[in-house]
Structures are given as C-alpha cells and as structure tokens.
Amino acid sequence: MSFELPKLDYAYDALEPKIDARTMEIHHTKHHAAYTNKLNDAVKGTELEGKTIEEVLAVVDKQPAGVRNNGGGFYNHNLYWKVLTPRGSGGPTGELKTAIDRDFGSVDKFKEEFSNAAATRFGSGWAWLVKDDKGKLVVSSTPNQDNPLMPVADVKGTPILGIDVWEHAYYLNYQNRRPEYISAFWDLINWDVVADLFHG
Ligand code: MN
Fold it and tell me: What is the pTM assigned to this prediction?
C-alpha cells in the first residue's frame, strides 16, 4: 500500500480571494504530488515500505534525507488541506478554547504567538500549534518539511494546526508579503478539524 495524494474537500478556487486558485492547484497537483511520489520511491523496497506515515516520521533521524523531506512534505500538506476551509468557523470553542486560554492566556495571545512564529521562520518552513505529550499546547516552527512528529524537532508532539510558509504557498498572490498571507489564514480555519485533532 503506497501513500496516496489526498483529494481536497473543496475546489481550488474555494479559498479565493484569500488564497488564489492557481496557487492551490499548483501546490496540490505539483508540490504535494511530488512529495508523495518521492516518498513512495524513497521507501520502496526498504524496511519502511508498508509503514504508516507516523511510523516513518518517527525514525527519520536514521533515514536518508529523502525520507525526512518527502515524508514531512506528504504529512504536512495533508494536515494543511484539512485545517483549511472556505467556511472559516470564527475561532476555537469548547475544550480546545479552554486549553488555549490555559496555555497562552487568551485566543488572541495564541494567534499573536503563532503568527509571529510563522512570520519569523527564516526561509522555508512551517509554524505549528502542537499538543505535547503532557497535553499542553505550544507554538513552534520547523524548517523545510520537518514537523513536530520527527525526533529532530525542537518541540515534539502532535501538530493540530499548521501553516505552510514556503513561498510556493503564497507568492503568486502576496509576493513578499508573508504577514498578509498569515493574516488571511485565520479566516480559513476549520476549527472543528483542529478540535478533533486536539482530542485525538
Ligand atoms: Mn507547501
């Protein structure tokens, strides 16, 4: 069973004008597809063939760089498409909101910290909301296609929200204005999905 590029739950133009259709189409059919294909090539005929993506990510420190880069690229984009929605649902509620208030002080303070992590990630990478092994929520960022499930990450845990800050995620629409893309991202979040990931 090889890794498969997921279908999106919405059309490429559904996130317009915050994220443009051309960016979405290239991002999914070129970038994500390439990570998926290269991951399959990298694990084929190795001890990793047939493992889940989580099992693969847990051992990337002992694998060639292609497994780390393409395994991360496969997983990270799966999460990114899932947490986005044309019907952004305002903000976190219920137990997720309670946990954010507890660990950041308020939803606004969490958003400020997350936005700052995304804006200041030098070069290409991601910012994350992570649930650590004690259930505490923390913000982190990772370079390239690394993520918090990897043993190489500074902050380890389960990512429940992630933003792609590679230029390919926003450059056609925003050019060098990464903060504007980050700001638009907040209007496109499916908080029900984030809550499901929080509850595991
Ligand atoms: Mn990307």
Answer: 0.97
